[in-house]
Amino acid sequence: MKSLLLGLAIATAVGACATTTSPTGRTQRVGAVSQQQLDQMGAQAFAEYKAKLPQSRNAGQTAYVRCVVNTITRELPAGAHTQWEVALFTNESPNAFALPGGKVGVYTGIFDVARNQDQLAAVIAHEIGHVIAHHHDERVTRQLGAQAGLGIIGALVGSQYGANAAQATQQLGGAAVQAAFLLPNNRAQEGEADVVGQRLMARAGFDPRQAVNLWQNMIAASSGSRAPEWLSTHPDPQSRINELRARAGDLMPTYQQARAAGRTPDCG
């Protein structure tokens, strides 16, 4: 880890950042590290998860998640990873994440709110949307600039923070991983991941309208003792649902074309 962070700090000192345009037209500042370095960081963070967090022994649920991930990632742009590694972690939190390098982690608690394959696809496509929209690159670039290379891994995993972070941080330990849990995605990135994810699930043959149902389930779950942390990244969850509903209507032709072309997922 020390050698990786040193290399990243050096890369920041000698490299020049660049700007690009996000899927929603927002200007992003990226390029503090190479894609190869991002992939390495994602792989290392994922290895830490697998080493410290218990993985589910439910073969059926694991195969179910892997089927949804594989169906979605087949629709990624050329050059994206073709083989994504999937891990199902035993944890009651209704969360999931995706990392550069082709890594997807899902907590078993997600099944409480994602009650069919289309709703699970909405979750996973949203998380993969963060990867393909270069949000990790953007956050690493911003964090390196602000903190001179400290807490790099913290820029990689933003979906776990707040109340659920405390328990997970105790399990994982380490300052870098603690930062990873405490750093949320910002609202602009969350909105973009909604856009990218809903488009992606429709192209894969999953019903984009089910993203609305997923978030309704999320809101319902927030009234209990295990509130989904994602809700805190948007100023108004109902506005988010309204946006997903409107976009779902626009994406119905894409979904119908995918189904007509034989993309009819049957993950269970």
Describe this structure in words.
Residues 1-18 form the signal peptide. This is M48 family metallopeptidase. Belongs to the peptidase M48 family. The protein has 268 residues and is mainly α. The chain has one domain (2-260). Helices cover 55% and strands 8% of the residues. The chain has helices spanning 2-14, 35-52, 59-73, 117-132, 135-147, 163-172, 175-182, 187-203, 210-222, 237-260; strands spanning 18-21, 27-30, 85-89, 96-99, 103-107. It has a three-stranded mixed β-sheet with strand order 3-5-4, sandwiched between helices. A two-stranded antiparallel sheet has the order 1-2. A hairpin with a 5-residue loop joins β1 and β2 (27-30). α3 (59-73) packs across α4, α4 packs across α8 (187-203) and α8 packs parallel to α10. The longest helix has 24 residues, at 237-260. It is globular, with a radius of gyration of 18 Å. Mean pLDDT is 79; it is low at 148-155, 157-183 and 225-231.
Topology of this protein?
Elements: H1 2-14, E1 18-21, E2 27-30, H2 35-52, H3 59-73, E3 85-89, E4 96-99, E5 103-107, H4 117-132, H5 135-147, H6 163-172, H7 175-182, H8 187-203, H9 210-222, H10 237-260
Parallel strand pairs: 3-5
Antiparallel strand pairs: 1-2, 4-5
Helix pairs in contact: 3-4, 4-8, 4-9, 6-7, 8-10, 9-10
Give the overall form.
globular
Helix count, per DSSP? 10
Tell me the quaternary state.
Answer: single chain
Total count of domains: 1
Strand residue content: 5-15%
Uncertain runs: 148-155, 157-183, 225-231
User: Can you count the beta strands?
Assistant: 5
Family: Belongs to the peptidase M48 family.
Pfam families: Peptidase_M48
Organism: Novilysobacter erysipheiresistens
Protein name: M48 family metallopeptidase
